[in-house]
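Hi W., the S-adenosylmethionine complex you wanted:
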Amino acid sequence: MPTLSSSWSTSSSNARAAYTVHASAVSKVLCHRLINGNEQYLVRWKTEPEFPVPPRAICSWHSVPELQRSLHHVQTYIESLSRTATTSTVNGAVNPINRKRKAPGADPLYSRDSSLGANGSAYWSREASVISVGSSSETSNETPTPATEVYNGVLQRKSGKITVKKSRDPAVVTLNVTKLPTPQMLEVAATAPTSVAERTIREAFDHSLSKLKHVRWENGVDGSAPSLNFTFVDGFILRDGVYRPDASANVGCTKPCKPNMGQNVGCEYPRMCTCLEYAAVDEPKLERSDPERYALYIHQKETEGYFVDTEGLPKRFPYQKPNADPRVPSVLLNFYLESRYPIYECNEYCACGPVCKSRVVQKGRRVPLVIFKTRNRGWGVYCDEELAKGEFIDTYIGEVITNEEADRREAKAGKAKASYLYNLDKFDGDDGITADTCFVVDGQYMGGPTRFMNHSCEPNCRQYTVSQNKHDLRIYDLAFFAIQDIPAGTELTFDYMDKDELEEEEVVQARHAAALGPDNMDKKPCNCGSRKCRGFLWV
Ligand SMILES: C[S@@+](CC[C@H](N)C(=O)[O-])C[C@H]1O[C@@H](n2cnc3c(N)ncnc32)[C@H](O)[C@@H]1O
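Structure:
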């Protein structure tokens, strides 16, 4: 029996964890109540076809200790209580989230539910701690009036209803499980506290965050914690159909190459160093030094894109370290900040070693980040320290999936899903890569702290393509850098649509067009609060 760690207890109102409810067995938490000071949650169990092993009951009440392994279902339920009151609207209409996909978005909605089918086979429960039925009516399918609570008997499910067999209790009724929670249950839930569950959820998130260095979380707004249905990982998790070129195909410096060896030696002088063969050409320098070669290069660039042979041409090194103090970070140079040209870092085949100045993103996050609750954009992220323009913050990681799988997940989970899908489409058009064949990073259930970064139409960060394997055009780092000096404590944001900033007049036009557009109801209002706000996410 995969769902229970021990047999059913005979009393669901026992605060001791008589058994553990495993998340995989839970379909949804439906309601809550307070019984003898014990906060309890009504769990609806998964049933066929999605869960072939028959659970022992269809619905049952559980105290918080019993729900330790399925807390995210309780969290989703508690969030749904407040969401009902605060769902955002435009012109009075509820706004679902647009499906455009590029960058993160959307809170997980209360949608991963499987309702009980009407034609499922009969399942049997053992005694007790099964759905509380309150009624003395023998036959009612509808809403029994509150009376006797938990009943001890054997339940059978037929045609979407639970019927009771062999009970000696005259209060036993037939209960339509598709109609739970009953109005009476909802009435009780309206005033019942959720504080024990909320505290337990906060502790569980503390625990999941404790394995990360330099990341903490805080909530000055309410008692909630970020989603527990999310696992912090430290890199890409490659899923079915996703592949990388063999690492041995990668190349590094072919000549002896040491950083700081002096004039014209080392990776900072990429005309000499082959590891940065694909780095951006220093065009002004080339034009000055070799106008003919420059003209040929420009022509090739226009016709061949990223695949021009640039060996021997002067290149632009991506980073600059302002001084020798190890605490002072390298920053991304203006050319890359502005041009969005892919950034190539040295790799394990380069002779330069770990102190090479081109190794920034690959060393990972070094700035302390805080996940915090905003008032109108869910969770956000800020940095505890001042950031310099061009400073690396962190990468966007998660599961790497095929485009087909991304479509499948999007179709299953609905519009909110698009927000967490990030296309690896920088090289769309090169090497047979198309929008349909590029890989996609899904950060919804696995990722790092940047998964909580919000959108702004006037952002202070931007995402850049960073690669250590120049032959891998499908999987590269999505790296966030500060695009201006950012004081400590300022929310870090990026533009989900990755647009160049608009002039104010254009902003007004864009906002107007978006508000009037045919899919207006499909848009999520943007609360970035900037002067240049376009009015909606995804426009
Ligand atoms: C990747 S998530 C960012 C983290 C998110 N705030 C959370 O709590 O998990 C993207 C979602 O955050 C919210 N969001 C981000 N930026 C926003 C903005 N400028 N205005 C309103 N909501 C925003 C939207 O719900 C969006 O779908």
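Residues 97, 104-107, 377-380, 419-420, 451-452, 454-456, 526-528, 537 surround S-adenosylmethionine (CB under 6 Å).

W.
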